[in-house]
Design the sequence.
């Protein structure tokens, strides 16, 4: 399962970044908001690259933007393989995506906690990260198929019901 989840997650995360970026560019055209160079600054600090004042190099920005999205896609793929799928799972994943950004940005001193941001800036960031999470989830769910242990467990008694115990040993790590 893990090998499939990795390559499928990279594909799903990359697709999610592409959809998010298209949305960001459309939003920027409408609002006039400039590009953010926070991803480049974070990557420079994480890797020890020299920091450049003012406008950051586009390749470094894109590397962080795409790399972070592709790597996090692996987690969403693992979720799909475990049976955590659909809008609910994508909403959970959106929180992970936002948390990852905040850990990296705040730990490196590049960013500030979201509660200190201007509300319109916060709303835009939340929207774009949700677009990423749901697009990534859509692709991850489609690639994972329906053979995960969570799906087999849910099939024991469909619907929301109490009293469903764990799958017998050996069945939880099945063919997914």
Sequence:
């Amino acid at each position: 399962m893990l090998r499939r989840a990795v390559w499928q997650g990279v594909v799903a995360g990359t697709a999610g970044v592409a959809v998010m970026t298209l949305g960001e560019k459309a939003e920027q055209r409408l609002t006039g908001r400039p590009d953010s160079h926070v991803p480049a600054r974070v990557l420079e600090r994480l890797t020890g690259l020299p920091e450049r004042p003012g406008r950051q190099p586009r390749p470094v920005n894109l590397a962080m933007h795409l790399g972070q999205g592709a790597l996090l896609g692996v987690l969403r793929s693992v979720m799909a393989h475990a049976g955590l799928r659909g809008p609910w799972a994508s909403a959970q994943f959106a929180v992970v995506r936002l948390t990852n950004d905040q850990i990296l940005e705040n730990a490196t001193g590049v960013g500030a906690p979201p509660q200190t941001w201007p509300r319109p800036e916060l709303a835009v960031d939340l929207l774009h990260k949700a677009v990423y999470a749901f697009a990534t989830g859509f692709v991850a769910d489609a690639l994972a198929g329906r053979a995960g242990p969570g799906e087999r467990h849910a099939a024991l008694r469909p619907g929301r019901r109490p009293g469903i115990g764990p799958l017998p040993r050996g069945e939880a790590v099945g063919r997914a």
